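FAQ
Q: What does a multi-component entry look like?
A: The components come first, one per line:
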Amino acid sequence: MKNTISLTFLLLSCCLAESASQSFEQLAPTPPMGWNSWNKFGCNVSESLIKEMADAMVKSGMRDAGYQYIVIDDCWQISRDSAGSIVADPERFPSGMRALADYIHSKGLKFGLYSCAGSATCQGRPGSRGYQFQDARQYAVWGVDYLKYDWCNDEGQDAKAAYKTMHEALQACGRPIVFSICEWGDNKPWEWGNGIGHLWRTTADIRDCFDCTINWGGLGVLQILDKQTGLEEYAGPGHWNDPDMLEIGNGGQTITEYRTHFSLWCMLAAPLMAGNDLRSMPDSITDIVLNPDAIAVNQDTLGYQGFKFIDYGDLEVWVKALSGGDAAFCFLNRSSQPVDLNFNWKKMGLYHFSIAGNGFNLWKNNYAVKDLWSHKQIGTTKENLTAKLAPHEALLVRLSVIRNP
Ligand code: GLA
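Then the predicted structure of the entire assembly, as tokens:
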């Protein structure tokens, strides 16, 4: 009898463990989409702000467009109690994290928090070092669905081991939680992140500028883009390179530049974490973050990360294989001068697409070309693609095979 019970118990725990790990693998089949407080609000986070942002995500149509996570970045935590449990700032979050999570869930959204693998976060709040399992259990009790885990004050730890510990803690906490590794690319997380987290930052922090390097390595859109080349092979369903959150709508760039920022992040299969004030978005910004054609490129289920295919200097051509034999092309004008584009599709090689194995074949098929910002068909691949690209503009198009031409 005793043996039967322990055998049943063993079988049950095996099954539970297996289903928990399967669900971890399946938590981010396409790049996560949501909003994070850091880029716009820094440490100025509060319960009312986060609730208003959840409301705005629904009202703006972002939830219905696929944005899901509302993530509080640094500064929500204030101390640990005598039992070592992490304490949310009671002045800023008077109803507590469980109530806030319930509110966010009631809107059909998911809730994310931030912590750090070091002993203190980048803003000097308590980190998770030494408390990983306790913190993960606390997140599960609160109803957390997403954890961004930073790398300040790492105290010489081995990065892979540190993130693996938190991975194990999340696996054991009893709740599926997306794990966002924020280690800035210092220890090549693309080489070990798959299986530990669902996404990993590849660079230092983004800044709200198109072409710049600011402060301690803060990077503009182009500077981040340039660091993605070669990383495409590491991304795929469930595991994504993260070139950092969006700056769209924060005021430092032109609308053209913000469109380009979005086009490129969609091409890169990057997580789309808005970083602006969702409560006060003009139409020019919602038109960007809600663009269904661009989002479809980002969320394509093939999970292929676009790569730089041709580099003409100021003009670059980026390509992303899509499911169903389609492909997205992004023609990027990096310069502050207009550029005349006259592109012969037949110049294209096929090598990379045969790797993607999606059946894309420019020599065999004729493709309809759709401009994903005007949402209009602009020709076929039998003709050259001609356009005038404004400074910092990107032309984002989708090629779909024309059956029975
Ligand atoms: C680091 C991260 C940022 C943000 C801040 C918060 O700089 O890279 O994304 O989370 O910490 O302090």
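Q: Is there any commentary attached?
A: Sometimes. For this entry: The pocket of alpha-D-galactopyranose is lined by residues 38, 73-74, 114, 121-123, 150, 182, 184, 205 (CB under 6 Å).
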